[in-house]
Design goal:
By secondary structure, the protein is mainly alpha-helical. The chain has 8 helices and 2 strands, in the order ααααββαααα. Helix 1 runs antiparallel to helix 8 and helix 7 packs antiparallel against helix 8. It starts with 10 loop residues before the first helix and ends in a 6-residue tail after the last helix.
Length: about 230
C-alpha cells in the first residue's frame, strides 16, 4: 500500500470520512448556520480520527488543533469541565502522544505506530491516576459551577483514560474515546434544550463515536499484523 496521505487510505476509510464530513455539514446547515468554529472543529476532528485509526501521527497533530477549538466551544456553554479537560489535558497529551508515536514507528514506517499492550502493573497505575484526576476535577468543576456536573466529571474520567491509552499506543484508546463520545452526546443534548444550534455538536459526537469504533477495529487488525514486533 502506498505510503501517501492522499492514497493510502482504504476505500472503507475514504467512504467513512466522506460520509462523516457530509453528516457534519448537513447538521450544521440544519441546526446552526452561524457558529463556524463548531463546524471547523468538527471537520478537523473527524479527519483526525481517520488518521488516528491508521495509527498515523498526523491524527495526533490534528487532535491538538481540535482540542484547542473545542475548548473554546465548551466555554460558550459554561462546560468548564470540557474546556479545562481539552485545553489542560487532551491537547498537551496529544502532543506527548505525537512524540510517542513518532518515536515508535512500526517497522520503520513513520505513517504507522507500533501497537503496544499494557502490562499488569500499568493497569493499576492508570486506574489509580484516573481516580485521582476524577476526584480533583470534580471539586474544580463544582467550584466553577459547571453545567451538568455529574456527566461533566464522568467525561473527565473517560477522557483521561483515552489520552493515557493513546499515549501508550494501546488499541483500547479508541474504546475509551467511544465511551467519552457517549457522554458528550448526552452533554450536548442537554445543552441543545436551551440552544438548538448545539444539536450540531450532538451529531458531531455521534459521528465521532462511529469513527472511534472503526478505530478500535482497525487497531485490533494492526495489532494482529504486528504481533511479535512491539516497540517499547
Amino acid at each position: 500500500m502506498k505510503n501517501n496521505r492522499f492514497h493510502y487510505l482504504t476505500k472503507v476509510e475514504i467512504g467513512l470520512w466522506v460520509i462523516s464530513v457530509l453528516v457534519v455539514l448537513a447538521s450544521f446547515l440544519a441546526f446552526d448556520r452561524q457558529n463556524y468554529l463548531n463546524l471547523t472543529a468538527s471537520l478537523i476532528g473527524v479527519t483526525s480520527l481517520i488518521f488516528n485509526a491508521r495509527g498515523n501521527p498526523v491524527g495526533q497533530l490534528l487532535m491538538v488543533v481540535f482540542s484547542v477549538m473545542y475548548g473554546g466551544i465548551s466555554y460558550t456553554f459554561t462546560y468548564y469541565g470540557e474546556m479545562i479537560t481539552y485545553l489542560g489535558m487532551t491537547a498537551p497529551m496529544a502532543v506527548f502522544s505525537l512524540v510517542s508515536w513518532l518515536r515508535n514507528p512500526y517497522n520503520g514506517n513513520r505513517a504507522e505506530v507500533a501497537v503496544n499492550r499494557l502490562k499488569g502493573r500499568e493497569w493499576g497505575v492508570m486506574l489509580g491516576l484516573t481516580a485521582l484526576v476524577t476526584v480533583i476535577f470534580y471539586f474544580i468543576l463544582a467550584y466553577f459551577h459547571t453545567a451538568n456536573l455529574a456527566p461533566s466529571t464522568l467525561s473527565v474520567t473517560t477522557s483521561f483514560m483515552a489520552v493515557y491509552l493513546t499515549f501508550r499506543r494501546s488499541a483500547l484508546y479508541a474504546l475509551a474515546y467511544a465511551a467519552n463520545d457517549i457522554i458528550l452526546i448526552l452533554l450536548w443534548a442537554l445543552a441543545s434544550r436551551e440552544n438548538l444550534s448545539y444539536l450540531s455538536m450532538v451529531v458531531c459526537f455521534v459521528v465521532f463515536f462511529v469513527n472511534d469504533l472503526y478505530g478500535y477495529v482497525n487497531w485490533t487488525r494492526m495489532e494482529k499484523r504486528q504481533q511479535g514486533f512491539y516497540c517499547e
